[in-house]
């Protein structure tokens, strides 16, 4: 269990929120480690990060992960000392361990660090995360992967656009619209993991229903994020994979029990036993050629 590092004005209990505690089963890169706030050997990193965050809005440092010359830092902010802990918001930062350069990565609520994913064969695994855009609301859930960027010497998040990552679950689709969704992170034959999403919007009698099927992965050559809107056979194949999710990463799938998947199951036909006599059966009770 890790101890939070708090500002003097907010001395919080030394308990890491379960929502932010990494729930990982895959092996992290050998060059990565979470620091131990109790360990004397890690105090220099904790102090360095705290000074780098000076002037920023935060209540507590929940996690510090170190890889090479940069620290992945997760802070939480509590509105008041009396506010409920489940209403905390979070921020993710990258802190240079060489010059204290601070890079803001993302903000949100209800952060869940899930598992270390292999998004590109031959490259290091990346830390998958789910988070919401708000608390006590009809939240949208986002997916991203946190990784060390060798070119920039900083931590970064995948598929970020406009400060948000990939929306995998939308709670509010609008008045008069029925929104059905499926998503999953799945492994390809070579072990590389990708994200697939399927969104179905039913407008009733006002307009034709719409489907959007996406694949999110990394280009094997450039290691750059790709977002592909699928059509035809590619879309059909992705829908089938999403509904089966047999090769999915635990905790990174949802909607397989929805009407989309139940309705897409192919019927299984079984051969029925023949009960009527064959056409050449002339009332014989014994096979042809047998002695009468």
UniProtKB/TrEMBL annotation:
The keyword Signal applies. Keywords: Signal. Residues 1-28 form the signal peptide. Residues 277-292 have a biased composition (Polar residues). It comes from the Bacteria. Residues 246-292 are annotated as: Disordered. This is Uncharacterized protein.
């Amino acid at each position: 269990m890790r101890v939070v590092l708090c500002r003097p004005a907010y001395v919080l209990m030394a308990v890491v929120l379960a929502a932010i505690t990494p729930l990982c089963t895959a092996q992290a890169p050998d060059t990565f480690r979470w620091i131990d706030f109790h360990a004397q050997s890690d105090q220099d990193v904790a102090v360095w990060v705290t000074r780098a965050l000076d002037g920023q809005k935060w209540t507590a440092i929940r996690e510090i992960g170190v890889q090479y010359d940069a620290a992945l830092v997760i802070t939480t902010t509590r509105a008041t000392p009396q506010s409920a802990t489940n209403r905390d918001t979070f921020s993710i930062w990258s802190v240079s361990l060489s010059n204290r350069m601070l890079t803001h990565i993302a903000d949100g609520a209800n952060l869940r660090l899930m598992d270390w994913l292999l998004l590109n064969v031959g490259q290091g695994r990346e830390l998958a995360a789910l988070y919401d855009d708000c608390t006590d609301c009809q939240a949208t859930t986002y997916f991203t992967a946190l990784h060390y960027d060798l070119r920039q010497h900083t931590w970064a998040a995948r598929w970020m656009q406009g400060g948000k990552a990939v929306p995998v679950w939308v709670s509010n689709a609008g008045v008069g619209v029925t929104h059905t969704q499926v998503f999953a992170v799945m492994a390809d034959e070579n072990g590389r993991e990708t994200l697939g999403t399927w969104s179905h919007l039913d407008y009733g009698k006002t307009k034709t229903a719409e489907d959007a099927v996406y694949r999110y992965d990394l280009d094997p050559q450039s290691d750059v994020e790709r977002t592909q809107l699928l059509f035809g056979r590619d879309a059909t194949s992705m829908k089938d994979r999403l509904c089966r999710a047999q090769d999915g990463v635990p905790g990174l799938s949802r909607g397989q029990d929805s009407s989309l998947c139940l309705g897409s199951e192919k019927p299984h036909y079984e051969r029925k036993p023949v009960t009527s006599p064959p056409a050449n059966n002339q009332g014989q009770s014994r096979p042809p050629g047998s002695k009468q």
